[in-house]
Amino acid sequence: MNTVDALRNLGGSPANFLDTGGKATSDTVSQAFRTILTDSRVNIIFVNIFGGLTLGDMIAKGVIKAYKEVGIQVPVVVRLRGTNEKEGQKLIAESGLPIEAFDDFGEAATRAIDLGNRAKGHGMPRP
Question: How far is it between the farthest Cα atoms of the chain?
Fold first, then answer.
């Protein structure tokens, strides 16, 4: 919940929160995207990973998988720090998908809030 509090402190208004847990796999991340996107208030997805148990490359694979399988039509901002973060950043960069990846929380959160504010009221299509 620290992510929600931090986003609010920066002027954001998170619609939802989902914790994939410390042993996330690419499948659980993809399923998390499906779950989050059932909420019509969601106009951006912000993924904040900071830890040791959760592998950055596994999260990146899950985000990429979700894009391919779920048909995501909202912006996605990913912040990866911790185990295998460089590998995860590389996977996202080389995916060719419109996923914005950061290693700094402040930069990622600011970008997510900006994209979310732009999307409000613009009738962005839902998957």
Answer: 38
DSSP state, 93? H
Predicted TM-score of the model (pTM): 0.86
Q: Residue 69: which residues within 8 A CB-CB, separation 6 or more?
A: 30
Q: How far is CA 77 from the centre of its chain?
A: 5
User: What does the alpha-carbon distance between residue 106 and residue 125 come to, in Å, rounded to a whole number?
Assistant: 28
- What is the per-residue pLDDT across 61-84, written as a single tens digit (0 to 9) for each? 999 999 999 888 899 999 999 889
Secondary structure element (H or E) that encloses residue 111, with its range: helix 105-119
Residue 30: C-alpha distances to residues 10, 14, 107, 120 (Å):
27, 20, 24, 24
DSSP label at 73? -
From the CA atom positions of the chain, what is the Rg in Å? Answer: 13
Q: Give dist(CA 101, CA 1) in Å, integer.
A: 21
SS3 of residue 82 by DSSP: strand
CA distance 12 to 110: 9
